[in-house]
Amino acid sequence: MSAGLAGHRVTTAGAGPADRRGTTGTGPADRHRTTAGAVLAELRERARAVLDPAHYDYFAGGVGDEVVLGGNEAAFRRLALLPRVLRGAPTRDLSVDLPGGRLAAPVLVAPTAFHRLAHPEGESATARAVAAARTVLVSGVASTVAIADVVAAARSVDPDAAVWFQLYPQPDDEVTACLVRRAERAGCTALVVTADSPVLGRHRRDAEHGFHDLPAGLAAENMRDLPGAAPGALRDIAMSPAVSWAHLDRLRASTSLPLWLKGVLHPRDAVLAVEHGVSGVVVSNHGGRQCDVVPAAVEALPAVVDAVAGRVPVVLDGGVRCGGDVAVALALGAAAVGVGRPVLWGLAAAGEAGVARVLDVLRDEVDHLLALCGGRDLADLTRDQVVARSAGVCARCG
Ligand SMILES: Cc1cc2nc3c(=O)[nH]c(=O)nc-3n(C[C@H](O)[C@H](O)[C@H](O)COP(=O)(O)O)c2cc1C
Ligand SMILES: O=C(O)C(=O)c1ccccc1
Q1: Average pLDDT for residues 297-306, to the nearest whole number?
Q2: Where do the domains of the chain lie?
Q3: pTM higher than 0.90 for the full model?
């Protein structure tokens, strides 16, 4: 890496894999001019400009008064990292092994619905970008491309690409079982069960736009040809108000795939999840889309990490918008983070290349931060490095 600085040329030896890439539209020179936060904000604005306002607000919006929506990002701004010094390493290893796949960098793509609202190629474009970045796509049951085609798109880029399948347990066990078989047959390498949605959150923005249905030609393609519906017909994705640990047990018994539980905030639920045989826990408040009274995801993280006590990995999603957010979450004990909306903005703004850019700037910024914090690999980010900061210090967010 080299940069002109006050008339001098400053060179860093062995700056690591970041500088050998450049396949995703963010060349080394570009990296010196911008930040992940600025890139993600710009992509969001481009997405806002190209999307139907109802679709933009479906993606952007949250539940209730959107307290938690804003709180996820705000909570990261209140945390700072204390670097360790004189612990240098010429290169860094950002990879992480999780049940269900290896990530080249600790950022996976959280499940979000209806990617074809953002871009005509929908989840296929997302899957190709994620596979090229050698991380994991958690593909939602509410995808507008069938899961078999999502996995095929990922494997067209990398035959070893890992795609996980997210599902809501359906009130009819037979329907749930059929979805699991579909994910297995497609080649998914893990299942993610979302537990924070026994009922749907109430989204004011959707109500104001009258946005309740997908436009003609788009559908939740995984919901075709399921038990209880006519051939070719679509079933609705149902929420299950009576969902219980027994549903999780049946799911656990029905597949040999690693099972993740997503939407955990209470440490005792994390312990129960481990006792019920999950392979991993996702600390998440659904990006502020379900319950508007909960803490920020990063605020809930440390207690869950402590409760799980290393028995399974913990992933966090919600409000991750820059490399610093990733580093803070990892220092607090997350094995990796998920990003939701930034991927939708990249997809809407520039399709596959836009998603690639989101993943690339985040990975590059984490790599740079790890170097600044004296880390050789992600285990070198530890909780003692996280401290509170006074509010209002981020130039971007105020
Ligand atoms: C438009 C949208 C759709 C979502 N759909 C799902 C879904 O179908 N299943 C699920 O488990 N989570 C869903 N989520 C939640 C994400 O998986 C994730 O928890 C959240 O987006 C993370 O927050 P972030 O957007 O701030 O990164 C959705 C989020 C958004 C924004
Ligand atoms: O919009 C969401 O957040 C979500 O989780 C969902 C649930 C059902 C269908 C589509 C998306």
Answers
A1: 98
A2: 21-378
A3: yes
Angle at 197 between CA 196 and CA 198, to 5 degrees: 110
Q: What is the pLDDT of residues 126-171, one digit of tens each?
A: 999 999 999 999 999 999 999 999 999 999 999 999 999 999 999 9
Strand 314-317 to strand 336-339: parallel, antiparallel, or no bridges (unpaired)?
Answer: parallel
> Which of 165, 168, 166, 135 lies closest to 148, judged by CA?
165
pLDDT digits (tens, 9 = 90+) for 364-387: 999 999 999 999 999 999 999 999
21-378, CATH topology level: TIM Barrel (3.20.20)
Nearest CA to ligand 1 atom 7: 112
Best of 289, 291, 343, 344 for a ligand 2 pocket test (most atoms within 8 Å of beta carbon): 289
DSSP line for 66-108: -HHHHHHHHHHHTEEE----S---SS-B--EEETTEEESSSEE
Closest C-alpha residue for ligand 2 atom 1: 113
Please give the pLDDT value at position 31.
65
- Interval between CA 250 and ligand 2 midpoint (Å): 23
Q: Are 30 and 358 in contact (CB under 8 A)?
A: no
Q: How far is the CA of 99 from the centre of ligand 2 (A)?
A: 25
Task: Judge whether 286 counts as a catalytic residue.
Answer: yes
In whole numbers, what is the pLDDT of the chain averaged over residues? 93
Report how far residue 272's alpha carbon sits from residue 255's, in angstroms, rounded to the nearest whole number.
Answer: 19
Q: Is 113 in the pocket of ligand 2 (CB under 6 A)?
A: yes
